[in-house]
Write a structure and sequence with these properties.
The protein has a seven-stranded mixed sheet, sandwiched between helices. Helix 6 links the parallel strand 4 and strand 5. The protein is built from nine helices and seven strands; from the N terminus they run H-H-H-E-H-E-H-E-E-H-E-H-H-H-E-E. Helix 3 crosses helix 4, helix 6 packs across helix 9 and helix 7 runs antiparallel to helix 8. It is of the alpha/beta class and 232 residues long.
Length: 232
């Protein structure tokens, strides 16, 4: 039955990945993504990994969120860790200038840069997080991103992404109407789900890129996380 619920991984085009997309559409669509993160488990999945790590962090720690969008996830992480006695300095990185600017209200510092060439020194940030960005990339760039995140992180690398499912794709399509998602958000959301990963696929990606066997966990809301201690 599980096999019937997991479609083949597709590589359909997401409209937001086009270079000529209107910046206003990008911003509006990412606001829809933030709404979906809050409602359907995107924030919870990432925070579950951060909470597990909290006891190992110093009273002041740092987090880099790669492809941060509106910065909703680092904001939630900082609020959560404050309650756990950790002051978290957050850096939000996005290649879209309009999103880097939008995220400034939610992160300690925002950076507009290429995720495949992170403009940070090796081992310079305690936690490096990437949420729902990996599925946008093709194989060679996925492995390059994993290596870059591993290079920059001191304590932990966390990938949070979508778990591919017919149910998730159909459910997102239906829910997008009452939630008043932009048509681009609706289209790209379904494509994103169909480009998501299984546990085995995500484990193999990390292992192939850096030779590490990560912890991979299925999360509620058809999410999946992979995390590991960065290699030296």
């Amino acid at each position: 039955m599980a096999g019937l619920l997991v479609p083949p991984r597709l590589h359909g085009e997401e409209i937001l990945d086009r270079p000529d997309i209107d910046p206003r559409v990008v911003t509006r669509s990412m606001e829809d993504v933030a709404k979906a993160n809050a409602l359907f488990g995107g924030i919870r999945a990432a925070l579950a990994e951060i909470e597990d790590l909290a006891p190992t962090l110093a009273e002041s720690a740092s987090l880099l969120d790669v492809a941060t969008g509106t910065g909703d996830i680092p904001l939630a992480a900082a609020r959560k860790l404050t309650k756990m006695g950790v002051h978290l300095t957050t850096f939000g990185l996005d290649s879209a200038e309009e999103l880097a600017q939008k995220s400034r209200a939610n992160v300690s510092a925002a950076v507009c840069a290429n995720a495949l060439e992170l403009p940070l020194a090796s081992k310079s940030v305690d936690v490096v997080l990437c949420s729902q960005f990996l599925h946008h990339l093709f194989a060679a760039d996925i492995e390059k991103l994993v290596r870059e995140m591993n290079r920059v992180a001191r304590k932990r690398v966390v990938i949070s992404d979508l778990r591919r499912s017919w149910i998730a794709a159909g459910g997102l399509w239906i829910a997008s109407f009452p939630l008043r998602f932009h048509p681009v958000s609706r289209h790209d959301g379904v494509v994103s789900v169909m480009r998501g990963f299984t546990r085995a696929e995500l484990r193999q990606i990390v292992s192939r890129a850096i030779g590490v066997d990560p912890r991979v966990v299925r999360r509620a809301g058809f999410r999946i996380t992979a995390s590991w201690t960065p290699t030296q």
